[in-house]
């Protein structure tokens, strides 16, 4: 029996888990990461919802080190060319959204206090 057939037969939860990818990321917990998502080199807070087909990009096209904005106009060099996103607690990321490297932006996140 194939691996896919055994997953479908025995455990639907396991099937959902193989339809997304989370790599080298910190996920705080109680998050809902939907199908076909790719979360790479990121920090994800608690109670975050990622809609289907969304994720984080972790490499710049020029392959340079990624700089992260820690306050308005204040960028720091992360010392790496792979860094995804920082998504705060209680955020919802809509379907088909790709967050560019090192983004930490309230316009990307719609939390319950902004609804």
Summarize the structure.
The chain has 115 residues and is an alpha/beta fold. It has helices at residues 3-10, 12-17; strands spanning 21-23, 26-29, 32-33, 38-40, 43-46, 49-50, 55-56, 67-71, 74-77, 86-87, 92-93, 98-99. The chain is 12% helix and 30% strand.
Structural account:
The protein has 115 residues and is α/β, with parallel strands linked by helices. The chain has one domain: Hexapeptide repeat proteins (UDP N-Acetylglucosamine Acyltransferase, domain 1). Helices cover 12% and strands 30% of the residues. The strands form five sheets. Strands 2-5-10 form a three-stranded parallel sheet, with no helix packed on it. It is globular, with a radius of gyration of 16 Å.
Give descriptors for this structure:
about 120 residues; alpha/beta; UDP N-Acetylglucosamine Acyltransferase, domain 1; 3-stranded parallel sheet; 12 strands
Give the SSE layout.
Layout: H1 3-10, H2 12-17, E1 21-23, E2 26-29, E3 32-33, E4 38-40, E5 43-46, E6 49-50, E7 55-56, E8 67-71, E9 74-77, E10 86-87, E11 92-93, E12 98-99
Parallel strand pairs: 1-4, 2-5, 3-6, 5-10, 6-11, 7-12
Antiparallel strand pairs: 8-9
> Which sequence of SSEs, written as H and E, runs from N to C?
HHEEEEEEEEEEEE
CATH homologous superfamily classification: Hexapeptide repeat proteins
Q: What is the gyration radius calculated from CA atoms?
A: 16 Å
Question: What would you call the quaternary organization?
Answer: single chain
Structural class: alpha/beta
Instruction: Domain count, please report it.
Output: 1
CATH architecture field? 3 Solenoid
Q: Largest sheet, order of strands side by side?
A: 2-5-10
